[in-house]
Amino acid sequence: MTLCGFFYDYKKGIMIYDIAIIGAGITGCMLARQLSRYDLKIVLIEKNSDVADETTKANSGIVHSGYDAKPGTLKAELNRKGNPMFDDICRQLDVAFKRIGSLTIASNDTELTQLQKLFHRGIDNGIPQLSLLDKQQLKKIEPNINNNVIAALLAQTAGIVDPFGLAIALAENALDNGVELKLETGITTISYRNSLYELKSRNETINANYVINCAGVHADKINELLCPASFKIKPRKGEYIVYDKKCASLVNHVIFQCPSEKGKGVLVTPTAHGNLMIGPNALEINDKDDYATTPQGIEEIIATASLSVENIPLNMSITNFAGLRAAADKGDFIIEELKEHKGFINVAGIESPGLTASPAIAEYVIDILKNSGLILREKNKYNPIRKPMIHFMQLSDSEKKQLIEREKSFGKIICRCESVTEGEIVDAIRRNAGARSVDGVKRRVRAGMGRCQGGFCLPRIMEILARELKKEESEILKDGVGSYITICHSRASGNPIP
């Protein structure tokens, strides 16, 4: 019998999911959405207060062409397969995506030799539309490239996407198609009894036939809740600087430096929403919750980015941030079912090009599930199309007028920097997997992402959140649990808030 989105086992007296996905970053959300086309009971579990709230929210947003991954690796195979899937996915989900191409530059003969190797590696990986450019050809398409650059590898299939916007859209569409989302549900123990997985958090127990571990930098710890350590995730921190939209035209492509063993180096790129961004550096750390930026790190990426592009307008920066990459000690993606525990699948070490590979990773995992014995029947009413977001400032004057006549809240500008209306914020809150915090609103509609970084619109956003969520403004969070914005005397004294 099906009950409230679960299977209920009367003999065992418990409710059972077909699949539990641990981790609602880009990989977990992509899997949830791809699996939601089948007649399955699926739960997406996230320890934070929102989806895309760790590595994904601090991703470069680059859709890589796939020329640089070592041939024969999962990274190479799934990057190649994932890249062409982005056009349809982003169209279906109304997510910003642009194929602007990438340039990997060389500033000396040693790097030029490396570029030639990368070109041939790209050919081996089956990557189309690659070409080597000399300095004169490069200057024609990138006038602001550093004058010391002598050549570049052009990869025309590379692009830029809104990484957290994509994860949010995937989660929303998955929920629209029947997936359940559990936030603030950190898994503390996992046991396997009678062919059933029991996942425990502080507040509940979740039972599932299959478990998919997509926990990012914490994937090794989730794996170790069930079995002895078989891999380790070493966080690699990268810092970024975002510049005002007035700077976006400084470059036309994603500009990479020659890659090293730590990654693809500091890049200079337009973003999917029209800003300019530089970064990241690469710092091996032990703390899996260290998202702090440092003066030394910021200085490093500015100095390094200047080797790629001249005249970066340092006085036009609007924010900086740091992200963590889930670098595994295996040197490749880890996507496999445990031999000793049928139905438990690790999807770990998903560092770059993990975002690009994510649609292909989902299909790869689905094949593992099929081979493990899961019967997949497609739904008759699966809908891959997400309800379009309303981008008020992109409408014509007549469309704006009609919209305001229908709903007056679209006539109230809340975020002046990004021209975001109250109607857009309300819509972002009311959707499946909707915003529950100030940063949740920010990631969905960009309110607070402009030059003033929420200096003017923050109080209004808090007011709207409180009204829509039926809370006091003192209860509204910036992002995660405990990130209160206002001081409440009762809370500060340790007494319950009335």
Characterise the protein shown here:
The chain is an alpha+beta fold and 498 residues long. It is 29% helix and 23% strand.
Provide a quick synopsis of the model.
The chain contains 14 helices and 24 strands. The chain is of the alpha+beta class.
Q: Uncertain runs with pLDDT below 50, 5 residues or more?
A: 1-6
Number of strands: 24
Largest sheet: 10 strands, mixed
Q: Percent range for helical residues?
A: 25-40%
N/C terminus separation: 42 Å
In terms of quaternary structure, the protein is: single chain
- Number of helical stretches of at least 4 residues: 14
Return Rg in Å: 23 Å
List the main descriptive attributes of the protein structure presented here:
single chain, disordered N terminus, 498 residues, alpha+beta, 10-stranded mixed beta sheet, 5-stranded antiparallel beta sheet, 24 strands, 29% helix
Write the layout of secondary structure elements.
Elements: E1 2-3, E2 6-9, E3 14-22, H1 26-35, E4 42-45, E5 62-63, H2 74-82, H3 86-93, E6 97-98, E7 102-106, H4 109-124, E8 130-134, H5 135-141, E9 151-155, E10 159-161, H6 163-176, E11 180-182, E12 189-193, E13 196-200, E14 205-213, H7 219-224, E15 233-243, E16 254-256, E17 267-270, E18 276-279, E19 283-284, H8 295-305, E20 317-328, E21 334-337, E22 344-348, H9 354-371, H10 397-406, E23 413-415, E24 420-421, H11 422-430, H12 438-445, H13 458-469, H14 489-492
Parallel strand pairs: 3-4, 3-14, 4-11, 7-16, 14-22
Antiparallel strand pairs: 1-2, 2-3, 5-10, 6-10, 7-9, 8-9, 12-13, 13-14, 15-18, 15-19, 15-20, 17-18, 21-22, 23-24
Helix pairs in contact: 1-6, 1-9, 2-9, 11-13
